[in-house]
């Protein structure tokens, strides 16, 4: 019972912070809050159409799409993306992901599928 109360409190706090994702039915704080708090935003352009996902994993829920050639606002606190699930996309094998906002959707896209910001 005590664990449920703590979990509910953590979920509420994360929701108020605006950085939660549902993963496997359990709400967890996402790296979006820490990434967004310590990065500079810039324009990024899709090299190929790429899904915007709730987490840095290929099987995470897709919340939107950044079409090839379209630009969104990106956030990268490290300059090289944040580590996540490895992938082989857009002609590159990598594991870095960047936070992206496009068309009212915010989430993660593979770094290999975007041009660096300007």
Concise summary:
With 118 residues, the protein is an alpha+beta fold.
Structure explained in plain terms:
Residues 1-30 and 32-36 have low confidence and may be disordered. The protein starts with a helix and ends with a strand. It is an alpha+beta fold. It folds into two domains: 1-30, no CATH class; 31-115, Roll (SH3 type barrels). Helix content is 19%, strand content 47%. It has helices at 2-17, 32-37; strands at residues 20-23, 26-29, 41-46, 50-53, 62-66, 71-75, 82-89, 92-102, 105-110, 114-115. The strands form three sheets. Strands 3, 6, 7, 8, 9 and 10 form a six-stranded antiparallel beta sheet that branches. Strands 1-2 form a two-stranded antiparallel sheet. The longest helix has 16 residues, at 2-17. It contains two helices and ten strands; from the N terminus they run αββαββββββββ. A hairpin with a 2-residue loop joins β1 and β2.
